[in-house]
Design brief:
Elements (H helix, E strand, L loop, with lengths): L21 H9 L19 H24 L12 H11 L8 H5 L1 H24 L8
Amino acid sequence: MQDEDEIREIQSIPTSKSAKGKGIAQEHKRGKTIGTMFMPRTTPGGQPSIKSVLQGKEAKEKVDLAVAKWMIDASIPFNAANSAYYQTMFDAACSFGAGYKAPNFYDLRGYLLTKNVVHVKNFVDSFRSTWKETKCTIMADG
């Protein structure tokens, strides 16, 4: 096995006595630069201005006030904001874009309710097979 090992000769890098290592440094300067290893510096337009940050805060507060006003008007308890679906609802609406129109009363009590009922039934059915083995079922409040 040792006879089959490949042996390679390592070639040394030629250096001139007058360069004293400067040739390697100059080659390195022409190669990769240090800038590729770090994030680029921020440009004058790279950071948001104080005015745009304050406008962003004002716009967020305007949206927050609209949500609070709707919850108060519809008598929705504030702990509804603790729902797992609360932020998901806003994320989905925002990802749709500015032209999104919310579902109306008839859509909510009609086909959207039916779709959610089917979804929950399928979810429960996925656990039914384990009920006989574990002797446990799903209990829910209301």
